[in-house]
Design a protein that fits this description.
Length: 183
């Protein structure tokens, strides 16, 4: 059984796989294409990615790829905790520029489904956090884009008060949404 909960922007969902445990540990089917397809998420994944962040406050994003190499993402945390964000960057969408955020953790055992047309990012809330995600298209440097995580017009409420944020140089130089190429 997989629970699928809408998060307030069309196409973005929290997914919670069932977890079976006993004195030995646990077993969980973290991805089942047929079960997700029954709920309207029918995607063939082509690549798995994993990131490790040694420190709390590592912020990755907001990232996306332009068509024809745009990506759907299924994101989960293997160890630690993150605040994960999806931003609607479809100019014709009634929710263009709006965001949703969700805490993902190994303890909550939840995932987020981020479809094409959304920028994605997260900040680590614990040290030694490992994030894994499946994508529906291969990484393409020429289609890779980013948006500033602190764009005031988007207004993401990152839970980073009192945390030293660490960004890559690429993310520090990302443009605001109004100056970005979108879908």
């Amino acid at each position: 059984m997989i629970k699928v909960r809408p998060l307030g922007l069309e196409g973005v969902f929290e997914i919670i796989p069932e977890k079976f445990g006993d004195e030995r540990g646990y077993f969980s089917e973290t991805y089942n294409r047929a079960k997700l397809a029954e709920r309207g998420i029918d995607i063939e994944f082509v690549q798995d990615n994993q990131s490790y962040s040694a420190r709390k406050g590592v912020l990755r994003g907001l990232h996306y790829q332009l068509p024809p190499r745009s990506q759907d993402k299924l994101v989960r945390v293997l160890r630690g905790r993150i605040f994960d964000v999806a931003v609607d960057i479809r100019p014709t969408s009634p929710t263009f520029g709006r965001w949703v955020g969700l805490e993902l953790s190994d303890e909550k055992w939840n995932q987020i489904w981020v479809p094409r047309g959304f920028a994605h990012g997260f900040v680590t809330l614990e040290e030694h956090t490992i994030v894994a995600y499946k994508v529906s298209d291969y990484y393409s440097p020429e289609h890779d884009r980013g948006i500033r995580y602190d764009d005031p017009e988007i207004g993401i409420e990152w839970p980073i008060e009192g945390i030293e944020v660490q960004l890559s140089q690429k993310d520090k130089e990302a443009p605001l949404l109004r100056n970005s190429e979108t879908f």
